[in-house]
Amino acid sequence: MVRLRLLVAGLVLASGSAGLAGCESGVSVRDQNWQQDVAYLARRLPLVHVDGLSGVRRMAWMAAADRLEQQVPRLSDGQVIVGMARMVAMLHDDETQLVLPPSAIYLFAARWMGGGLYLIGVPAADRWLLGARLLAVDAHQVPEVVARLRAVIDYQDPGEARGWEVGWDQLGPSQPGYLNDANLLQWLGITRSAATAEFTVQTAQGRIRTVKLTAGGLPGRSFPRISFVPSPLYLRNTAEPYWLRTLARQRAVYLKYNQCLPGAGFQRLAARALAVMRAHPTYRLIVDLRNNPGGDDQPFQALINGIRADPAINRRGRIFGLINDFTASSATVDSNTLRKSTNALLIGQQVADPINEFGNDNHLLRLPHYGVLVQFTTAVINGAKTRYGLPDSVVAPTLHDWLTGQDPVLAKALAYSRSHGP
Length: 422
Hints:
Layout: H1 29-48, H2 58-71, H3 77-89, E1 97-99, E2 109-113, E3 116-123, E4 133-137, E5 140-141, H4 142-150, H5 158-166, H6 182-187, E6 196-202, E7 208-214, E8 226-228, E9 242-247, E10 252-257, H7 265-279, E11 284-288, H8 300-308, E12 319-323, H9 330-341, E13 345-348, E14 358-359, E15 364-366, E16 373-375, E17 379-380, E18 393-394, H10 399-404, H11 408-414
Parallel strand pairs: 10-11, 11-12, 12-13, 13-18
Antiparallel strand pairs: 1-16, 2-3, 3-8, 4-5, 4-6, 6-7, 9-10, 14-17, 15-16
Helix pairs in contact: 1-2, 1-3, 2-3, 7-8, 8-9
């Protein structure tokens, strides 16, 4: 159940807008090829997807494909790709996505806080933008921008859509958020070009300003220096799939789980964490699953088994799980298992995908002519649509927390009193 964030490295787009002359029909080879790709997507995806067409009726699916085929001669290559992404989004299953081709990106990291988008990473030369709320892109207000982006994101839970929009708290050319993708913004008619765009913000000081940003950061080129808000503990060492730290002053063992990878690495780290817990009976174990996009849910079971095997550890007030709106896929399942199978308390925000009905094993469908890739669902994980990953104590960082590097979620776990609760 890996949450893939891939780019199509080998996408081959036709040169020119008209292409070569076609057959007697007068349809160009370029148009014929795109139409055949659309038809292949419409025919093949329902066959390889574990649940067929899941959230859409076949008649509506085929009608959408037929409309797009007819529109191909009037569309640019990018607009055809967007049209196919809209088709895929009709499935509403989270784990099936059309993989966007490489693009220059707008160099900022945005974060949803409440109902607003705030900038937490900006070009070093524009550091004054940190903490600003995004209001508009090329004069299109944020609600309109979001509506156009969500039309091409396949999602069941709104939290999943928010994650795709902002790149799951990452900023880089290999995995941009949809809001950063310069090509996509132009293909959707949000921006006038894929080179520059005007972003209107309300600064942290309350001023309304408009700044023109130039897209950059193409793969293979040097990445400009970016200024970020201060990083709390859980956003450090993000390149490591998991890591451990003993917080002796706070009498806690902190186990950060960034990615659910197969293999014995996490099991060994979990064993170390439990050994420290046994050596220090007053310590609490904090398992942090925030910003974990998922992967293999089997390694986590070793931690669950170890906790359950020791009644001195498996006590209310000794085990905590931390989750947020970027906990997703198998990490959602892991957080639910921690809560249901042990005496752990979950603290934080609702996970990105509380329903988490589907999963995938990294399977990709390649369209025959232009190499467009579609990740597709291969497993039904939660057919009953039971809601997972609901926190026992809801805590969400504020803008002030982000700007000062504070972590109220971790603080809540560290301050927990067994007699009074969190």
